[in-house]
Amino acid sequence: MIDCPMDLNFQPFETTSLFMSVIIVAFLLHNGTSNYFKGIMLILCYLIVSASFYVHTDPAPIGENNQFTADP
């Protein structure tokens, strides 16, 4: 886990899901009020996004075998 590179090179899936969640939240709360139905909709959107990240696998970059070793 420590040898894993952490950069800001987001895949299209992460970028699209972030963009869509911002649009959904802005659309639901654009008038500054909320109710129980809007809250339930936001919780369901959160569950859908978290479930999609759970089952999504990123494709391996070209030319890499996607294995991290701890050899110095």
TrEMBL record:
<protein>
    <submittedName>
        <fullName>Uncharacterized protein</fullName>
    </submittedName>
</protein>
<keyword id="KW-1133">Transmembrane helix</keyword>
<keyword id="KW-0406">Ion transport</keyword>
<feature type="transmembrane region" description="Helical">
    <location>
        <begin position="36"/>
        <end position="55"/>
    </location>
</feature>
<keyword id="KW-0050">Antiport</keyword>
<dbReference type="InterPro" id="IPR004713">
    <property type="entry name" value="CaH_exchang"/>
</dbReference>
<dbReference type="GO" id="GO:0006874">
    <property type="term" value="P:intracellular calcium ion homeostasis"/>
</dbReference>
<keyword id="KW-0812">Transmembrane</keyword>
<dbReference type="InterPro" id="IPR044880">
    <property type="entry name" value="NCX_ion-bd_dom_sf"/>
</dbReference>
<dbReference type="GO" id="GO:0009705">
    <property type="term" value="C:plant-type vacuole membrane"/>
</dbReference>
<keyword id="KW-0472">Membrane</keyword>
<feature type="transmembrane region" description="Helical">
    <location>
        <begin position="12"/>
        <end position="29"/>
    </location>
</feature>
<keyword id="KW-0813">Transport</keyword>
<dbReference type="GO" id="GO:0015369">
    <property type="term" value="F:calcium:proton antiporter activity"/>
</dbReference>
